[in-house]
Amino acid sequence: MGTLIQLVVDGLAMGSVYGAIALAIVLVNQSTGMINFAQGGMAVLSAYLAFTFLGLGLPLIVAILLSVAASFLIGALIERFLMRRFMGGAEDTQVVVTVGLLTLLTGICGWLWSYNNLQFPSLFPSSAFTFLGAAISWRSFGTFLVIAGIMVLLQLLFRQTKLGLALRAVADNRQSASFAGLPVGRLLMVGWGLAAALGAVAGALVAPRLSLTPGMLDTTLVYALAAVILGGITSPVGVVVAAWLIGVLENLAAVYVPIIGHDLKIAVPFILLFVVLLLRPQGLFGRKTVVRV
Predict the structure, then answer these.
(1) What pLDDT is recorded for position 288?
(2) Higher pLDDT, 67 or 288
(3) pLDDT for res 71
């Protein structure tokens, strides 16, 4: 029983890492209507900015807050001077642009800070406590609580605030939102800025666990995209629950399913994804899209 609980706890901790990036992807989609494949690269850049602020002698929390503010500005500028040039074009073109942006950001991070592993300090103590026979690190527990809190805040943002409703209106139909008097351009900048700021938080949470490198979130981004599709891209709660589910199931399969083991556990989320899409194409928590013809 102790082993089972430990596997579940470790899975929830790793799933929180996936959920951090998945939430940023959902935020961009709910604000702009597109998928941002560069979200991982933006989070890495934010982590390097925080690392640079730390090098100036600033406290960790101050360095992270400054990186969040800087990331908001960078995200807004990327939307204004890059993504807006492709507004109104084919969606495939926008997706390709974000993939290119991911490559560019990774290269910039490697050029400025090198490709060596850097140690990023954690907001939480490295010690652990015992619960039902399982050792739970304060770092994993803190990450879990932060992601759960952000999940709730995003759900409230999109469902209960005027800003969230305006962002969703722009994502659904920019032309209609413009006719209704909404400042579409500024709202798109805010959407990208908020997603970049959330990516900064994700980067600060992930970097101590994975070590800071330009490609530290490459694999995590794949898992995050799986969580987005599995949970439903319209639901912040859904993608986080899906990320936790992926983390737990891959841990359990690695230990209790001999044919999978640790070498093939990466296939678990995609098997789960295949089954869910067959039964519920909109995802576990997503809503069906109705198109009027």
Answers:
(1) 62
(2) 67
(3) 95
Contact at 8 Å (CB) between 176 and 33? Answer: no
pLDDT of residue 42: 93
Crossing angle between the packed helical segments 184-210 and 2-32, to the nearest 10 degrees: 160
Burial class (CB in 10 A: 0-12, 13-18, 19+), 256: exposed
216, 208 contact by CB (below 8 A): no
| Rounded Cα gap, residues 12 and 139, in angstroms | 12
Please spell the DSSP secondary structure of 216-283, one letter per residue.
Answer: TTHHHHHHHHHHHHHH-TT-HHHHHHHHHHHHHHHHHHHHH-TTTTTTSGGGHHHHHHHHHHHH-TT-
Give the torsion sign (CA, 200, 201, 203, 207).
Answer: positive
pLDDT in tens, 252-272: 888 888 777 777 777 777 788
pTM of the model: 0.88
H or E stretch at 131: strand 128-131
- How many C-beta atoms surround the C-beta of residue 185 within 10 A? 15
The DSSP secondary-structure symbol of 118 reads B
Residue extents of the structural domains in the chain: 2-216
Q: Report residue 118 CA to chain centroid gap.
A: 21
Structure confidence by residue, pLDDT tens digits, 117-127: 999 998 888 88
In our burial notation (b when 16+ CB lie closer than 10 A, e otherwise), range 231-245 reads bbbbbbbbbbbbbbb
Q: Return the structure tokens found at 37.
A: 């494949």
Look at the alpha carbons of 93, 219, 121, 202 in this order and tell me if their dihedral is positive or negative.
positive
Structure-model confidence comparison of residues 11 and 118, the more confident one: 118
